[in-house]
Amino acid sequence: MMHELAQPIALAAIADLLGVTPPPVEEWAQVSDTIMRSMDGGLDPDLIEPGRLAHQQLSDLVASWFTTTGRPRLLGHGRARPQRRPPSTRPTRGTRPV
Which run of H or E residues covers position 92? Predict the structure, then answer.
């Protein structure tokens, strides 16, 4: 029961924070569960390949978020930020310039 409530809420919160459309909960749960189970691949080698494929599926989904998001949330903010200035060459002590 808890997992039926927690997964959709967690997925919705993460997607909203990142500014992306969440994938279907069932698909997300299956990929997540397969990746988690593959961590026991040393005990059961049959879990390794499904875990690798699920990891690639998750990586493809996340990569698509960086190219398709148009919503102004965390990913949009990160993509829109200008490049950071190079670090100062002035000597510092702690966080204050000397």
Answer: strand 92-93
Q: How far apart are CA 57 and CA 32, in angstroms?
A: 10
- Are 32 and 51 in contact, with CB atoms under 8 Å apart? no
pTM value is 0.62
- Burial track 45-81 (b if 16+ CB lie within 10 A, e otherwise): eebeeebeebeebbeeeeeeeeeebeeeeebbeeeee
Cα angle 32, 11, 19 (rounded to 5 degrees) comes to 125
22-59 pLDDT tens trace: 899 999 899 999 999 999 999 999 999 999 999 999 99
